[in-house]
Amino acid sequence: MTHRERILAAFAGQRTDRIPIFDQTVFSNVASAALGRPLDIGGGELRYKEACAWMRGEQAHAEFVDKMLQDLAWFTRQVGYDMIRMPWRETRRPSEQLDEHTFLFGDRQDRWAVCRYSPESGNWHEIDNHLRRDGVDHLLEDIRAQVKAYQGPTSLPDTALAEWDRLLALADRDLAAACGAGGVGFGMHEPAWLEALRLEPDLLRLWHDQHADQQIAWIEAYRRHGADLCLAGGDFC
Q: d(Cα 19, Cα 22) in Å, to the nearest integer?
């Protein structure tokens, strides 16, 4: 069986010639130590490095992405995975670097978040944001505006999938490909979201349904660009 055949057969509940092999995420430092060369492929360190690359400018970020894509394809080949995916990244561009490991995203006068990297744990976390300051009333106002403005799903333009296309071009042709579109859910780490669910369940249900429709359209776009499976859903759906 080819890698793709093995993965698709497993998801269809069919017998395979061996157990398919795949991990959603391998931390960059673990992969680097195991394979004896510096690799940028996943985990909090990858997201921190991408934020740092953004702060150095467009060219530095483009070079970071090039190395990441090549590292992913090479690593997947070396360990014999049956499927490849784009890792969880920090595609947002920081507006400010607050210290060596801490970054501001967005505008302090509107939506914003502060993220910090921990070298000790290898984690990248949001440590503060506008919701923790403005509370549930601000969140509900924002959700109402989104629901009112929604006019149906829109597809992703081909240009938005350029990096995905490059990853598949670098990978072995018979690998299965898993995309990351289809994320739906509520912000389980933010009290404001839990309060909103309690206060306005019908509004949140409508927002969730609209969001799901949009994600389905994006999944279709990825399918047209070679995706076999979708790692969709969310931690708190």
A: 10
Of 190, 141, 16, 8, give the one whose Cα is nearest residue 83. Answer: 8
Residue type, 189: H
Please name which of 61, 27, 31 lies closest in space to residue 45, comparing C-alpha atoms: 27
Q: How many CA atoms lie within 13 A of 13 on its CB side?
A: 0
- Single out the residue of 159, 154, 45 nearest to residue 101, CA to CA: 45
10-residue stretch averages of pLDDT, the chain, 237 residues long = 97 96 95 97 98 97 98 97 96 96 95 96 94 94 97 92 97 93 85 95 96 94 95 74
Amino acid present at 144: R
**Angle of CA points 18, 26, 95, to nearest 5°:** 145
- CA dist., res. 8 & res. 216, Å (int): 20
Q: Which long-range contacts (CB under 8 A, 24 or more apart) does 158-165 make?
A: 158/225, 160/221, 161/221, 161/222, 161/225, 163/65, 163/69, 163/86, 164/86, 164/222, 164/225, 165/225, 165/226
Nearest residue to 38 (alpha-carbon basis) of 29, 46, 47: 29
Dist. CA 137–CA 159, nearest whole Å: 36
Q: Are strands 83-85 and 176-179 parallel, antiparallel or unpaired?
A: parallel
- Count CA atoms closer than 13 A to 191's CA, side-chain side: 5
Contact 231, 182 (CB under 8 A): yes
pTM of the predicted model over 0.90: yes
Paired residues of 177 in beta bridges:
84
Q: Are the beta carbons of 116 and 127 closer than 8 angstroms?
A: yes
